[in-house]
Design goal:
- This protein is an alpha/beta fold and 450 residues long.
- The protein is globular.
Length: 450
């Protein structure tokens, strides 16, 4: 990414924007949407259509300018299935191409690492900023975002309650801008090392918010990231606090989930002992998209939200603050499943996707009910390869952490209708064998392994 080479340029951009004030932002898409707190799961005009869009580079005319962007459609795209959609904004002097390819880290870091862990469950967009930045003059970058969404959703099947945005540095600033100006369009945002550089039109409504920032960021001081966070602590009705942050030299990160937030609007703050980077590694001053903990944490934050009206999952971070230092993603929720497994255990399919590095891995499990009956409460049993130990997980409880493991549903994802899929996952350490489990059973019935 050539992160160090762009630090000074980002700082200059910050000073320029702070000197000139906020830009006025349009709200053409957001004004047409109802509150996400009351909107049912909604599909787009593209559902059921044979799409004319294809994965790859795209262009669109918006605000009188020809703008470029990259679209990635799941390999197994089904036009009857509403998909999650994620927009990933690049940093100053970054490009859509680097976001899309993962740059020097390769595919493991494409779209800040989320594309690989998504396992073909998500539509991704990488927009290209003017002059490789997000100045958002007269709201043109927000209008660009609106116009991309309109085009994509007229062609593809998108769940309008599952739109997300994220970005690092200037891209984080743009993600903050869409949280401010499009609170009824985006379900949640993740802001890596951001500051208010792209404006904040509105900024009074709740949006699920995750902020990630280095304690000794030499480009955008952590105080700027805290300021962005605190706006949504207030908007989301969370209990104010001063979250613990790691000490310099500890080479760790601390994740705090705020308590008291409005149902369905959690705020999470992740502070790490490091500089200006989206891919810090615990235990090292180096950065690596292949080994960073941020991918699993952001994916966990985004995928906790279910389709439909905005409600608070019982395992939502807003329900139980966690401030313990961690060298891996924060621990999976410990609540018991809300339902006892019953019925619908005739058929299932599990697709496992592993992202491994030298001594660690993340594994995403897509569980599909291929039977004819609804599953009400589930337990997925599998055996980890020797030497693997789960350190954290998302969207399920895991016990024990090695050997034969049982993953049980949370209260918000225990029902699986026929044809329905839920995604869970975990991070683990390994001693050389980064393989997948070879078999799975769901409520005692063997599953097909895809």
């Amino acid at each position: 990414m050539r992160q160090k080479s762009i630090f000074a340029a980002v700082a200059a951009a910050a000073l320029l924007v702070l000197a000139t004030g906020q830009t006025a932002l349009s709200d053409s898409l957001g004004s047409a949407k109802t509150s996400s707190a009351s909107a049912a799961a909604a599909t787009t005009a593209g559902c059921g259509k044979t799409p004319t869009l294809r994965s790859g580079s795209q262009t669109i005319t918006t605000s009188g300018k020809n703008r470029s962007w990259i679209l990635r459609i799941p390999d197994n795209y089904d036009n009857t299935r509403p998909y999650r959609l994620i927009i990933a904004y690049h940093w100053l002097n970054g490009t859509a191409q680097i976001v899309d390819s993962g740059g020097s880290d390769g595919a493991v870091w494409a779209y800040y690492g989320l594309k690989q862990v998504s396992n073909n469950s998500t539509i991704f967009i990488a927009p290209q900023g003017i002059n490789n930045g997000w100045g958002n003059s007269n709201g043109e970058d927000l209008t660009f975002t609106d116009d991309m969404l309109k085009l994509v959703e007229s062609n593809l099947c998108v769940d309008t309650t599952q739109r997300f945005a994220l970005g690092w540095s200037y891209g984080g600033a743009m993600s903050f801008a869409v949280a401010c100006a499009r609170p009824t369009v985006f379900r949640a945002v993740a802001v890596y090392s951001g500051a208010q550089l792209s404006g904040c039109n509105g900024g009074t409504q709740p949006v699920a918010y995750m902020g990630i920032h280095g304690i000794h960021d030499s480009v955008l001081n952590i105080s700027q990231g805290r300021s962005l966070r605190d706006r949504f602590v207030s908007n989301n009705g969370c209990t104010p606090q001063s979250p613990r942050e790691p000490s310099q030299g500890s080479l760790t990160h601390i994740i705090t989930a705020y308590s008291g937030c409005r149902a369905g609007y959690p705020v999470v703050w992740a502070a790490f002992d490091g500089d200006h980077t989206p891919s810090p590694n615990d235990g090292s001053t180096s950065t690596s998209g292949a080994r960073t903990w941020t991918t699993a944490e952001v994916w966990k934050f985004f995928t906790q939200f279910q389709s439909g009206p905005t409600t608070s999952p019982s395992a939502s971070p807003s329900q139980s603050p966690s401030q313990s230092p961690s060298q891996s993603p924060s621990q999976s929720p410990s609540q018991s499943p809300s339902q006892s497994p019953s019925g619908g255990t005739g058929a299932c399919r599990v697709t496992a996707t592993v992202n491994a590095w030298n001594n660690g891995l993340t594994e995403n499990l897509a569980i599909t009910n291929t039977g004819s009956s609804t599953i009400n409460g589930w337990s997925l049993v599998f055996t980890l390869p020797g030497g693997q130990t789960i350190t954290s997980g998302w969207n399920a409880t895991y016990s024990p952490t090695s050997g034969q493991v049982t993953a049980k549903n949370m209260s918000y994802n225990g029902t699986l209708a026929p044809g329905g899929t839920t995604e869970v996952g975990f991070q683990a350490n390994h001693t050389g064998n980064a393989g997948k489990p070879t078999s799975f059973t769901l409520n005692g019935s063997p599953c097909t392994v895809a």
